[in-house]
Amino acid sequence: MAKDGKKFMEKIIGKAVELMPAKHYEAPEIAPVKKELKDSRVALITTAGVHLKVDKPFDTTGSDPTYRVVPGDAMMEDLMITHGHYDDSQAHLDINVVFPIDRLKELKEEGMIGSIAENFYTFRGYIPKTRPLIKKSAPEVAEALVKDQVDIAILTPG
């Protein structure tokens, strides 16, 4: 599609989204931090479409409310991005731009944080059909974080 045609389609889609009825949800209660950072267990959660190279890629053709699990000890070279709705060129050069896994490991080594969660959780941020995310995926991830005794979750966008 020509560049002008793409801009035209983006304008039409943008106007359609503005006119869509939206359901409004109350903001969730934020749990107070009860530990010093140096004693806290920390997890990463991203909507940047990061996943292990061996995992099934996110569906970029529609609304994909699923998530992927990335072990806390995963290496940057084991990761890739499947998203399609943001400029991920810099993230492909250094995934820490959207998923600061190496920086978190450095903070652990420096004693700034107590420990790294057993698993991190990743989503593809473009999810127009949010009901499955709200009803299934998000509660599953929240339950897993509680089970892993995570004190702090660092959220990064994509």
Describe what this molecule looks like in 3D.
It is a single chain. The chain contains four helices and seven strands. With about 160 residues, the chain is an alpha/beta fold. The chain has one domain. The protein starts with a helix and ends with a strand.
Topology:
Layout (H helix, E strand, L loop, with lengths): L2 H17 L21 E6 L3 E3 L14 E5 L7 E3 L7 H5 L7 H9 L5 E2 L2 E5 L7 H17 L4 E5 L2
Order of helices and strands: HEEEEHHEEHE
Strand content: 15-25%
Low-pLDDT parts are none
Sheet with most strands? 5 strands, mixed
* Overall geometry: globular
Topology, number of strands: 7
Distance between the termini: 25 Å
Return Rg in Å. Answer: 18 Å
- Oligomeric state: single chain
The average pLDDT score comes to 88
How many distinct helices? 4
In short:
The chain has one domain (34-156).
How would you describe this structure in keywords?
single chain; two-stranded antiparallel ribbon; 158 residues; alpha/beta; 5-stranded mixed sheet
